[in-house]
Fold each of these.
Amino acid sequence: MNTYDIIIIGAGPAGLAAAIAAKEAGVEDVLVIERDSVPGGILNQCIHNGFGLHTFREELTGPEYAARFLCRAEELGVAIRLSTMVLSLTNERVLTVTSRERGVEQLRGRAVILAMGCRERPRGALNIPGYRPAGIYSAGTAQRLVNLEGFMPGREVVILGSGDIGLIMARRMTLEGAHVKCVAELLPYSGGLKRNIVQCLHDYDIPLLLSHTVVDIHGRERLEGVTLAEVGPDRKPVPGSEKYIPCDTLLLSVGLLPENELSEGAEVTLDRVTGGPAVNESLETNVPGIFACGNVLHVHDLVDYVSEEAARAGRAAAKFVRGGTPKSARVVKLTGRDGVRYTVPQTVRPAAMSDLDAMTDIEAQSFPPEEKATRESFEARMKVFPECFMLLCEDGRPVGLIDGMVTNDATISDPMFENASLHDPKGAWQSIFGFCVLPEMRGRGAAPLLMRAFIEKARAEGRRGLILTCKERLIHYYEQFGFVNMGVSASEHGGAVWYDMTLEF
């Protein structure tokens, strides 16, 4: 059995970016396995522009975007096995693969990165009445037929679903001479990017029918038409709103599903909302050494974000191979509330004594000298209430910190900052002494993620709520989390004027 430092499953945008990042992090033995005959994944059939605006600050087509990463991968000597199918993956990171050249073999990775992408939801998942005639395709399949195979699926087209692929194919089919009669969307709003609605529908006068769906399919051998109906708030067809539309092609753009059969075989825990693996701040799954990124983790709107996330996974896997990251017996699970449907990562780890230097550095970059906590203060607090420290990490590196003792006092007083023994593990209120992220992480959603995790921790522990002090300019910021301004604080910590803020459950 051949052993590699890192094995990456999938040579799409996620797999290529992860491989490059791992190589640049110093790991030499990186193998990428791809079932297709060429690398690039879905990008190869996405010949439209709009890629690379965030990554390269220019507008590229899908193949051009993929080529940038392929060139870099070749420069670094990344090994890519094409036309190779991964049959299974175990929780010991052993892969069974097959190819025409090598047959069936087993490979082992010291770390494995899941980058299999996603697949389209098929017609069978929609339970649309009618026969199964020719002419019904997923939007991605039609895209491949037109852009790569040179086949035209049909001439009179109806598209169900306003996801980005469906919108893009409405334009593409029009440019190829087809008549796209409408795009129907079950929801009262489109699921695609605003720019795609404008550029793909409005520019070509293609109707977008919101709150509509297909309720019947007509034709036995070949599609002859579909029946559309308006749906109510309960998403059920409204009687009497049916309308027959003759067509020879129905394209389905009704959602994407992360490709996680291999993940399940490796006993990776999946998130019920995303359909992808549940990961920690290093994008590591519950199985040590198995990481996930890209659309196999959760469906992304932009490939630029896939590449950014995959690079993090590559660096984290490289760090794991070199010795791993500090482990904690405790993890904090994040849950979405108040309009937040899900979070990625799903867990974060509490801080450990080995993080003292990193915590001190984060604090020093966030507060003036007279207000920041010293390394000695952190050490004293960690000895008494380590469970009240929480870190946010990127690639295993701490980039954010929140901490504070538990108390029965409804407000923070100055002695709390200096005397860790005032901590009462059975107290009603979780205080927040320090809440900060590194400057380069600000504006990226890191701080809200950390705060919400700390709030959920206090809620799960049965606290009455949380308390903190802040300066006047930050009152509005903390109000977004549910904190209420209680007025000027008695605390004079660092010689500043503070305001008491309270979040009561």
Amino acid sequence: MNVLYIIADQWRGECLSRLGHDHVRTPHLDALAEDGVQFNQHYTQASPCGPSRTSVHTGMYMHNHRSFLNGTPLDARHTNVAKEARAAGHDPVLFGYTDISLDPRHYVIENGYEGVLPGMDPVCLLDGSYAPWIARLKIKGYDVPDRGSDMFQPKRNFPGADGKESTYAPAQYTAEDSNTAFLVDEAITYIDGQEGKPWFAHIAFISPHPPFVVPEPYHDMYNADDMPLPSRQPTPEQEAAQHPWIEYFLDQQTSAGHTIGIPPKDKPLSDAEAQQTKATYFGMISEVDAQVGRLIAYLKENDMYDDTLIVFTSDHGEHMGDHWMYSKYSYFQQTFHIPMIVRDPTAAADAARGTIVDEFTESIDVMPTILNYLGVDVPAQCDGHSLIPFCHGSPPENWRDAYHAAFDMRGLSNGEIVLPLGLAPDECVVYVLCDKRYKYVHFATLSPLLFDMQNDPGEFENLAADPEHQGKVAEYSQKMLSWLMKSDGDELTDMHLTTSGVSRWS
């Protein structure tokens, strides 16, 4: 039994051509989904990278693992998918990064928030230094700048870039030498060296996370003029009127992280810049798709495809200009909706191949799914549930009817704590509950929001203050409270100690 566990960074959930996307092309992931199960309503439980990956690797909601920012330590008492697999005799190895902030009470901290998930052997660690990739580029004769991240600067004076926007020019490196291709190269080398022994490989791609730059031929695979404009209010001011958090975020937002080596643009980005950024983002997605296809082709050529569980997902989404926003800090669907494809190689999954599941699934389901496939017991800490029954054509009864997510608004700037809107640290949490009709957003002290997802899928009209919807606000705030109460950490609460030993409620 092999496991290929892939996470892309900042990939919007609808950006798969099999789901009917109007522009992006992902033929290799489409083929994987045709041979597996695609989960159309899959959502991350947290944002940004560190909290989201903590949820996916531990199977826990953020209010249970409490690692709510990049840099918030994960309590060492919590187990994770790598630890559990390793304890059962498997050897999980890493290509890329996990962005886990380790507990300083138990571990020596070397990489800040970019720590390695305990139990995961980093065969090729690609953290913010990009050291092994940079070393490879030097061997190949690239003129590498002193700061590794400067390799993400686009080519200067690129022919045809005149009159184009800043993300049009391709990367300095070729597609064969990209960090995406590098990780696949390293994974293939490792798998090849196992000589038929079972393996567990976790690959974490950087793309399509900013900076928005991609090598040829992907930089112009999509014509900017054909790209739709972002979904947003006519002006940022009108967008900001929805909620104080949006007003604050839009005021603080810059375009500095979009490209490296290009001066920040005046905000907001122009329509032309927004279209080109979207075209580049789709190119980055297509590059990852091509490399996933190369890895799958290798597995097929070497008779491993039918012995390998393949899981493809992302950590969180990207606004891509919607609501005048970039990045992944908000309560909107663009933050939380992510792709999810599971290909179970066993004969039991044959009847469900090609299925598209429209039930709500969550990133906390990944750990139970992998452990279920490996025949490893799912620990009590997990809030998620295995998706293997969906892959076998037998969806579980009483499955969840909504997704749940959270993020924390506090942050850091130049090493200083930032508390927006005059909030205290414990007032910065935001919870989201969304079913097929309504989405409810709860702030600790700020006003809530309610959206009618059937009639307003773009989330432009906040109904929370509408007198006719006060009953719905009360109903969904009760649902939120009930979910929090029922999902509160219960690793030991199913036990009862007696003189006769341990009894269990469950």
